Predict the structure.
Amino acid sequence: MTRPFRLALPSKGRLHAPALELARAAGVEVDLNGRALHAHCSRWDIEVLFARADDIPAWTADGAVDAAVAGRDLIVEAAAEVDELVPLGFGRCALEVAVPAGGTIAEVGALDGGRVATAHPRTAAAFFASQGLTVDTVPIRGSVELAPRLDAADGIVDLVSSGDTLRQNGLRPIATVLESEAVLVARSGLGGRAQAVAGELATVIESVVAARDKRYLMLNAPDESLDDVIALLPGMDSPTVLPLARGGLHAVHADVDAEAVADLLAPLRAAGARSLLVLPIQNLIP
Ligand code: AMP
């Protein structure tokens, strides 16, 4: 490989901050230097470039960059032939078909012969074709949800996360076209050193993503409470149990779901656990 491995991150928008934060947590030290659009990561000799989210799939498929963080919806829309390496757990949304809430359309079949406005025309057209429906797509870049109100379309195909924007615009979802989240992708057919770097990067990023929902629980339990304490710990791999220097006590260590921690602490204490510590985990490889 004559040039460094190139990783593209979204330069702005809702995927920018979480992608940057993830890269840094994975040890890719990105220095946002003024207006510079790329940065070097010394550890792997990775060149980080910032690009528009909707340009990233094509850049990756074409080999301008070797790997990237991208929205799955945009990869599908661009029909970009890339390998999905790691789902990243942020930027979650669904591409939904939505229609006026007070109207007569209750299911997608009723859109046959109609028009939908969308920023995802290719994905929408493929969806309606797969349902055996003839639906015209009206490509729109922004504020897709206004189109039915302006009588420019019978419905829309748009990204939805909370559903608030749909509701505020008098629309309701009737079908899901695609579930999306941010993903780490690599150019198909990487070889040699680039393939090795992509594999290492994927492993580290996956370990950071996996660690996010977990906490490391440490506690001490008197010997007579040990079985009760262990029984309360959720069914992961069995916890580590270590005798302490002072007799009659054992240390218990386990990784637990972050959302289970609040429900665990009082029962653990009631069962006899003490010196409880809950720590964040930086990397986790199951
Ligand atoms: P941007 O337009 O640059 O803010 O980024 C849009 C990307 O963020 C989309 O392609 C999706 O992958 C993701 N995303 C997640 N939730 C939503 C949402 N509710 N609306 C639009 N995009 C979303």
